[in-house]
Design brief:
Length: about 130
């Protein structure tokens, strides 16, 4: 999973982004909930909502957004530049990405769904003759 670190005009670390191909909104929520001392203050699975998760972690406020509304990339943004909690979250997220755990889990779900669809199509096809 590709993770991009973003700096503001002053060269300060403000947020990081990642492709959501295999890391979906629910996975983001589970990740945030796994952080000690984190508290989700807002979360929605609704389509088209740019800021879909807000949370606090170690005294800092964060937002998770879908910046282009196209459902392909998410950003985790901290209100305070270069905040230590942001660096901690970034490191933990990189560890998860390197392990491939989220990708493997979601790839398995896709394979199961594909098998179910093929079996359903085969059953419908055989009963319609």
């Amino acid at each position: 999973m590709k993770i991009e670190q973003y700096l503001n005009d002053d060269g300060e670390f403000r947020c990081f982004g990642f492709s959501n191909t295999f890391f979906h909104k629910k996975d983001v929520k589970n990740f945030v909930e796994s952080l000690p001392d984190s508290k989700i203050t807002f979360f929605t699975n609704a389509h088209g909502v740019e800021d879909f998760c807000e949370f606090t972690y170690r005294g800092e406020n964060f937002k998770v957004c879908e910046p282009y509304g196209d459902n392909s990339f998410y950003d985790i943004f901290c209100e305070t530049a270069d905040a230590e909690p942001l660096l901690e979250i970034y490191d933990k997220f990189c560890d998860i990405a390197e392990s491939g755990k989220a990708e493997k889990s979601n790839k398995l779900k896709l394979v199961v769904w594909a098998i179910v669809i093929v079996l359903f199509a085969a059953i419908v096809s055989s009963t319609s003759n």
